[in-house]
């Protein structure tokens, strides 16, 4: 575990509600959508620099250090904030988003289309 401290339980909906106080943008939907793209790029950037600068292969043969993992996790937190804000702007809870995604994945698994491409497979 990266963080050696007690973390109290936190539901997705509680997180979404708690983060609303930090939403200081005025362009609903568009701002968190664009910011999510930026933060996802930062996650990819952290990983690409580990490959370029430290020669990591990410093929299952090497393990990340706690520091390397933490750097990626911090960026994932920013992605989560943007997802929570975007969902809130769309009038849906993170819990609903998660359930909808699980239903979609379950349907794809049942139809054996998990490895296909396209939104409506």
Task: Please characterize this protein's 3D structure.
The chain has 4 helices and no strands. The chain has helices at 12-19, 30-54, 66-89, 94-110. The longest helix is centred in the middle third of the chain and has 25 residues, at 30-54. It is globular, with a radius of gyration of 17 Å. The model has no long low-confidence stretch (mean pLDDT 92).
Question: What brief labels describe this structure?
Answer:
globular; putative ntp pyrophosphohydrolase like fold; 121 residues
Number of strands: 0
CATH topology of the domain at 12-95: putative ntp pyrophosphohydrolase like fold
Low-pLDDT segments: none
Which structural class do you get from the secondary structure elements? mainly alpha
Order of helices and strands: HHHH
Topology:
Blueprint: H1 12-19, H2 30-54, H3 66-89, H4 94-110
């Amino acid at each position: 575990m990266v963080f050696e401290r007690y973390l109290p339980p936190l539901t997705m909906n509680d997180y979404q509600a708690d983060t609303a106080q930090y939403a200081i943008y005025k362009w609903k939907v568009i701002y968190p959508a664009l910011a999510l793209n930026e933060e996802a790029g930062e996650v990819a950037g952290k990983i690409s620099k580990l490959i370029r600068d430290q020669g990591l292969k990410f093929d299952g043969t090497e393990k990340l250090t706690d520091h390397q993992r933490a750097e990626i996790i911090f960026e994932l937190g920013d992605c989560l904030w943007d997802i929570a804000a975007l969902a809130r702007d769309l009038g849906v809870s993170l819990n609903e988003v998660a359930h909808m995604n699980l239903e979609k994945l379950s349907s794809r698994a049942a139809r054996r289309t998990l490895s296909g491409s396209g939104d409506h497979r």
